[in-house]
Amino acid sequence: MDEVSLSGIEIVERVSLEYSVNPRLLLALLEYQSGWVTKKNPEEASRLHPMGYYDAWREGLYGQLAWASNLLNEGYYLWKINAITAWPLIDGSVLQVEPTINPGTAGVLNLMRYLKSGPEWERAISEEGIFATFFRFFGYPFSFAYEPMIPQDLTQPNMQLPFETGLVWAFTGGPHGGWDTGSAWAAIDFAPPGEAMGCYPSEAWVAASAPGEIVYADHGMVIQDLDGDGRWQTGWSILYGHIATWERVEVGEVLDAGDRIGHPSCEGGFSTGTHLHLARRYNGEWIAVDADLPLILDGWISVGYGVEYDGYLVKGDSTVEAWNGRSPLNAIQR
Length: 334
What we know:
Largest sheet: 9 strands, antiparallel
CATH superfamily of the largest domain: Glucose Permease (Domain IIA)
Structural class: alpha+beta
CATH class of the largest domain: Mainly Beta
Order of helices and strands: HHHEEHHHEEEEEEEEEEEEEEE
Helix content: 10-25%
Number of helices: 6
CATH topology of the largest domain: Glucose Permease (Domain IIA)
C-alpha cells in the first residue's frame, strides 16, 4: 500500500474499490473474526491482525482486508469456471464442495478455509456464523442479490488502444489479475515508448479507450464509467492502473475516446516498472480478457493460453506477443 494514512472507513472503501468486494461483506467478516466493528477496544492480539491471519507482511487493517478480499475473489472466480472441487482446511482435512452454492458463498468458504478448521469451520459457515453477523448488521444478505450479474448476451462496447496515435508502445503483460492474484484475469499491460527501464517519469500519455465519465482518480488508479450513470459498480467500467498524479485527469470529467487520462508510472499497487495496467469490469465483476468475452482494442483481440502474463493480441494475420521488455515482437501502435 502507498505510504498514506487512512481512517478505518477509508480503508474499507479503498479495499472494496480495488478488489471489487462488497464493503458490507468485509465489515461482517471483520466483526465475526475480531469484533473490530463494534468493540471500542479490540483484544491486543487482533490489533495488528484483525482478520486473524498472522503474517508480518499482512499487518494492519489494510493488509488484512486486502489479503481476505483476494481470497474472496479467488473462490468467487475459480467457482465460476468450475475449478474448485474440494476445500482443504488448515488442519489438513479436505471437504467436498457442495455443488449448489453460488460464487459469493464459494468466495467466503475459500477465505474461511485459511482461518478455521473442525468445529470452528462448521460454525463459521452455519446460519449462526458469518451469516448471522451479516444479518445483524444489514439484514438478509440475498435481499441484495442482483441477477444476472453478467447477462448472457453481454457485448463489449467499442474500445481502442489506450494511447495516442503514431507512438509505439510495448505489450508487456498478457492476461492477468484485474487486481491482485485472486481476481479474474481481466487485465493486460502496456509500457510507454522509450528506452528507460524500471520506474521512471514518462511524458507519454495514456488515452481513454472509450467515451465516459471519470468517477475515481487517486492512489495511482483512474476509473472510467461507460454507461453514463456515474457509478463504476454498474454497467461497463475501465480501470487504468499506475497513472501518475502529475497531470492526471480529474473526477467528473467526461472524456471522448482518445482524450488524455494521464501518464504511466509505478504509482499505485505493486509495479517493477513504469507501465499501464488496463482492466475491465461489468457490474463490478472482473471480466477476463481471454475468455468468452475477450478484450478487443481497435480490432486487436486478447488471446491467452493459461499462463499468467503470457498471451497475444491478434488482428487478422498480425500477432503481437506479450513480453516483459521492448522488442519488435511486442511493439504496437494506433
